[in-house]
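Continuing the batch. This is chain 6 of the set; chains 1 through 5 are on the previous pages. Same settings as before, nothing changed between runs. Recording input and output for traceability.
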Amino acid sequence: MQEIGRVIEKKDDTVVLMIGGSELCAGCELRRSCGRAGAQPRKIEATDNIGVEKDDIVKVVLSPYRYLLSAFVIFILPILFMVLFYYLGKIVSLSENNSVLLAFAGLALYFILLIPLRNKLTTLAKAKVIEQVASNK
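Output for chain 6:
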């Protein structure tokens, strides 16, 4: 998936982009048929291999892997943790109520474990700058 955004910050080989919003959508010919034209702008980080500068307008590619990984981590893994901890409670012969409590404890543990892994997951599926559409000069 490709997006166009404005570079708002540059750090080494990483840039922070503002994607979407009225400023960038105003000049687009597809703004009437685009579902994102009225959406709020959002910030994303992207890897810069072509040497763009602040205020440049660039095209970035976002891997579908990023969206699939996010959906899996946010929706599927917590359910798997809950089911695993529920059956773990059943295996050690806990009552039904205690097994359910253990399942919720497993859910809490999942989100606690997710905090330190958050940065690794975001760098794993980072967007990449592929083209400079307009320069700030």
